[in-house]
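Honest question from a wet-lab person: if I give you the sequences of every part of a complex, can you actually get the arrangement of the whole thing, not just the pieces? Trying it with mine:
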Amino acid sequence: MPAVTPALAAIIFSAGAVSGTLGALLGLGGGVFLVPFLNLVLGFPFGVAAAISLTTVIATSSTVSAGRAGRQLINMRLGMLLEVATAGGSFLGGITAHLIAQSLLQRLFGIVAAVVAMIMLTRLRRRNVILDPAADPGVLGGRYYEDESATTVTYRVRRLPVALGASFLAGNVSSLLGIGGGIVKVPILNAWCGIPLRAAAATSAFMIGVTATAGGVIYYGRGQLEPTLAAAAVLGVQIGSWGGMRFGATASAKWLKALMAVVLFVVSAMMFARGGR
Amino acid sequence: MTRGERHAGALRLERMIGRVLRAGVTTSSVCLASGLLWTMAEGTSAPARLLLQTGIVVLLATPVARVVVSVAEYVVERDWGFATLTAIVLLELLASALAALVFNRRL
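Yes, you can. This is the full assembly:
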């Protein structure tokens, strides 16, 4: 366990603020930036980095979702259905994390991130939207008001088994690697299941609190969570995601998709560099 | 159930969940911030550690509380399908807590 100093706490607080801003913008937990920073830059053991990151994921999810509640952007029913898969995957990941070689997981993660980024880039201009506002979205679909186009967006959920499979994988990756798992499921929900990016990101941000708790509590039980450093990271992320949310409301969906693809490529390269060692 | 009723119930649940999340995250942030400042100012002490641990536990408990509220609301609405789904999520979270206790050798 790293020695706790005020300087280290300040560095982690700042890293949390940056991760939180980017995470809120992209509908990711922010852990996708924090874990590589803690692990590669500060040299924390992977499990310690993952444990800190998972607590920030819970905080981001709770803050972002509390701010969005009542605006119908979060698809609660779909989220709660998919949580059955993410929490299961996260539980399995949590109890097996210490049995699997990290280098193998990191390389696998690098492949997944790169593939997902390419899917995002090829579908930049696709809009999964039913423009007739009277259309029935079905039990799992949704509708929300989009500020930038001043229209009510309606959508149906397609290929539910794909969404469930992606969610299970996302939950598994979440507790193994200490991220929210939005990196896996948001692009798949958007590209294959008919869910607009904004709604997919909001629903994912809502779900990752439960996902990260299922994994995080196991790290906590194993004694891998340093409370002081976790506190610094959580508070940094809180401030960062608060800022990111304000900026996110004005950002265009196309711009978000492109930024997310770039982020995924960078994460992929970092994971390969790490896992190949 | 009509679409209007389902919509009203969904909106009520969404607001309730928003309040639970905000309360949990505020409580935990206050505990974590005071515990962190205390530790930075005077080094590790028993009350500072207690504040930090409380902050972490409240943070971990917040999504669990959100799921409990959802189960209760779906039961009240007699939406048995979603009551079952959210109850399964709750059981999965309890399984994780149990695994944590096992790893911690407290069971």
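Two things worth pointing out. The mean pLDDT of chain B is 90. Chain B touches chain A through 50 residues (CB under 8 Å).
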